[in-house]
Amino acid sequence: AEHMYYFSELALTLNEPEERVAPTDSRLRPDQRLMESGRWDEANVEKQRLEEKQRAVRRRREAEAVEALEEGKDYEGYIPQWFERKVDAVTGELICVYKGGYWEAKDKQDWSRCPDIF
Fold this sequence. Notes:
- By secondary structure, the protein is mainly alpha-helical.
- It has 2 domains: 1-77, no CATH class; 79-109, no CATH class.
- It has helices spanning 9-13, 30-36, 40-70, 102-108, and strands at 83-87, 94-98.
- Strands 1-2 form a two-stranded antiparallel ribbon.
- Strand 1 and strand 2 form a beta hairpin.
- It starts with 8 loop residues before the first helix and ends in a 10-residue tail after the last helix.
């Protein structure tokens, strides 16, 4: 651990790749993999690409929301795949609750519901 920034063994293994996970799993981020391989310049270029891709998606969603508003239509916006927002009955706070589907998709290796985020 003293050679790896004094992280515990658990901390060092948390980002280890795992097979059969969703293509949106953060451990699959290409910039992360490059960084962990010590390829810093390539990782920075890839990080910039991913961030711009995210910004483009956000701009598209914002434009769709404006267009829907101008046309008097409802716009739902982004809907998470595996969670739904609910109000906690005890605290009254907005929370995210697992709505199912991930483990079934993992068993079947059917990731068709996952967006292309990388």
